[in-house]
Design a protein that fits this description.
74 residues, globular, single chain, 42% helix
Length: 74
């Protein structure tokens, strides 16, 4: 049986502010990929503490609309 932490609920993914795990489920990528995008300045995140961060759903949608790609293919 899957743990709740591994699979965010639909309600959580539809909320305005998402955790790393919820954001990764929304974008269908890994949390590490999102961490790299935040560090590179391509994705905005709210960081109340060093390790804890949240992402606004609107920022994720803007990130996806910007044409960001994995691997930077031709």
């Amino acid at each position: 049986m899957a743990r709740e932490k591994d699979h965010p609920s639909v309600e959580a993914v539809n909320s305005t502010i998402l955790t790393k795990l919820e954001a990764a489920a929304f974008v269908r990528c890994t949390t590490r990929y999102l961490e790299r995008q935040v560090k590179a300045g391509r994705l905005r995140a709210l960081k109340p503490t060093g390790k804890l961060w949240r992402v606004r759903r609107s920022d994720l949608e803007a990130f996806l609309e910007s044409g960001a790609t994995i691997g930077g293919g031709k």
